[in-house]
Amino acid sequence: MQNWLTMTAADLGRGIEAGEISPVALTRCYLDAIDAHPQKDRIYTQVTHDRALAEAEAAQQRANLGLRRSLLDGVPVSWKDLFDSAGTATESGSDLLKGRVPEQDAAVLRNAALMGTVCLGKTHMSELAFSGLGFNPVKETPPCVNDQKAAPGGSSSGAAASVAFGLAAGGIGSDTGGSVRIPSAWNDLVGLKTTSGRITLEGVVPLCLKFDTVGPLARSVEDAGLLLGVLEGTAGPDLRNPGSLKSRRFADLQNVAQNDLDPQVAAAHRETLQRLQDAGAEIVPLEVPALEEAMGLSPVLYTTEAYGLWKDVIEAAPQLMYTEILERFRSGAQFSGSDYVAAWAKLEQCRMAWDQAAAGFDAVLSPVSPILPPNLERLQSDHDYYVQSNLLALRNTRIGNLMGLCGLSLPTGTPSCGLQVLGQPDCEEALLRTGAAIEAALA
Asked: β-pairing, 406-411 with 418-423?
């Protein structure tokens, strides 16, 4: 049964389908592993034992009757602490929302429950999702699977840890500037950033509504596709035959994405591209000059909306917040409404330039993060190091959010060095098939 904790969600679902795995036994296995784990409280905010077992028993009954609702019917999944869950505290990693207990589930959690997945509980995250580091001194900072002294990546830090440490078969997170892909990369997982607007945000605590997206953190591209399906109430894309890389043409993004790379990240990226070329892919260097302007718009676009949404709550009790997060929110006050409108107009022009430059490629590639997970002790004591680390961690992933794309983070085989694969807007199915082909080539 212990190997259940490391199996893909898809393989667990196939085991249930074949009658080889009991959803109840599987859920008990995961709950026991969570309860026994020495860092449980750093990963989960709440473990919903009763709900999980009730959902597992219902999944078992459906399996016995041959009425399973999806391949993941009966598979245990964790949820980031910004998805509303009925009767369970949902605090978005912040004491500003301490004691907040929703009356109903978020729409995506309802969808996933209807498709049969088992809710194990809620996972820790960066405060109000406004950091790519996963460091949260107000609540808890989850561990990084590759370095206990380093940040886990955020803001979906607990979601990543729950999967990486074998305490969930998949995790559901959110990505506003990289919050699914960074923790996935730093914990050697697959992370899917969906296109803004594709998945409903009903019942999701917001950060920046124009950039907020919902997405899974998983052990395989197939799992990510299946989890995308259950979030939408569908079977998900068929990834069984993704094809080879011989007909694939990829852009290797040069400007912005490859500035100031950590030497280990740069070496891992070069090696990964070589392996893709050896598998038959064509790799073409690409520069998109409009990216520099788009990146310069980030402070206006992100902080203005974030502070606009949270100003009243924050200023009612600012002492409850971690200073670095508080300052980042308050920086949005320096911009006017006209600044915000003008920035969005400029961003739309940048997006058109990107679309023209990226046309004709199956995907655009880059390192997920230009840096390795930063040291936790130094993050707490060195303001400049914190700010620089946070900005660098989010830089490459933010390209996908600013350009309105869908994106994947894939493990490369080098610890904490993920490959970012950016696809066209609303083309998650094509991106996942491309990702599955890359995953096979890198295996």
From this structure: antiparallel
Q: Catalytic: 346?
A: no
d(C-alpha 282, C-alpha 340), whole Å: 39
Q: Tell me which H or E stretch contains 337.
A: helix 337-358
Q: What is the pLDDT of residues 136-188, one digit of tens each?
A: 999 999 999 999 999 999 999 999 999 999 999 999 999 999 999 999 999 99
* Residue of 22, 70, 78, 80 with catalytic role: 80
Task: Let me know if 179 is a catalytic residue.
Answer: yes
Active-site hit among 78, 85, 94, 155: 155
141, exposed or middle or buried, with CB in 10 Å at 0-12, 13-18, 19+? buried
Pairwise CA distance, residues 84 & 109, whole Å:
8
Specify whether 155 is catalytic: yes
User: Any idea how long the chain is?
Assistant: 443
Among residues 70, 94, 174, 179, the one annotated as catalytic is 179
pLDDT one-digit tens code per residue, 80-129: 999 999 999 999 999 999 999 999 999 999 999 999 999 999 999 999 99
Give all strands of the β-sheet with 76-80 in edge-to-edge order. 44-47, 118-123, 76-80, 171-175, 213-218, 190-193, 406-411, 418-423, 363-367, 249-253, 282-286
pTM: 0.98
Residues 158-194 as b or e (16 or more Cβ within 10 Å = b):
bbbbbbbbbbbbbbbbbbbbbbbbbbbbbbbbbbbbb
